[in-house]
Amino acid sequence: MPIVLSVKFIDDEVLAEIASRLQLRNLRKLDDRPLPPGDYAFGNESRVDPTLRQDGAKNFDFAIFKKTTIFESAAIEFRTEFFNLFNHPQFGPPNGTCCLAPPNGNFGQVTNTINNPRLIQFALKFEF
Description:
Mean pLDDT: 77
Structural class: mainly beta
Order of helices and strands: HEEE
Shape: elongated
Largest sheet: 3 strands, antiparallel
Number of helices: 1
């Protein structure tokens, strides 16, 4: 059966002396950090944690157009616009609903996207 020695602020030399007198092997200090709270208890994590972030926006829009003059006072413009050109998904934030009865099985999972798929738009404009 292992012997647990729990003493705060113990020096390494004192620990070695205790281990040699008691003829113990692998005696080491316990971690004196506070234990996390149990289930359904409040901890000390802030409500808004700046280190927890969702993925940034990656959206590339592209447009190209050609204007052709027919007369001095009339022209036709053909325009093509691509929204979300590379069709890159932007995932929504992780599901933050927890601690309900029954427990939420999707807690911490990303289950949706927040952008539209690639859209292509053509336009023909007559100017006079």
